[in-house]
């Protein structure tokens, strides 16, 4: 709407208005930021190229901060959602698990992020994470469930897992082939598989953003 008003004013002034590409913000942690990779191999650049190959022109703001938790995302979502942002990808929670943060706290932080987006009328693609079993079954159940619960509550688009693209062949052992030596962050090949898996959901986000323009 804001972009449409600006284009209309330019038209009234007799100035040819060029349609601006959609702008997405990718709010996340090191997985979004591209930790351990050269810039062009990171999630945002690879996703941008994937979309370009689909004939979709879009600008993606890399709002990934290495080491960030859901609390960090909640603290900075306000200034991430600038007027130019048409849609937002939210991929946070991995560092909450590494620190053993109570899932109820993580869920509250994600609620703040989604509330900010809802207030700004910006559609969201929420990407889930899964907790390992070492914190116990109750922790894992609460953590894993918060993503689909929040997607339903706020009516967001939803992708069950950031890493599901690495498991497409059904061989859990093959996943390490696509990881960096730390076993936490994907390598360039892994990011490519992740982008292939999440790309269709991002296309849905872009479609939702266009409907709101």
Automatic annotation (TrEMBL):
Which parts of the sequence belong to the SGNH hydrolase-type esterase domain? 26-192
Quick one: signal sequence residues? Answer: 1-19
Q: Cross-referenced Pfam families, in alphabetical order?
A: Lipase_GDSL_2
From which source organism is this entry? Answer: Ruegeria arenilitoris
Record Gene3D superfamilies? SGNH hydrolase
Alphabetically sorted, this entry's keywords are: Hydrolase, Signal
Q: What is its EC number?
A: 3.1.1.1
The molecule here is called: Esterase TesA
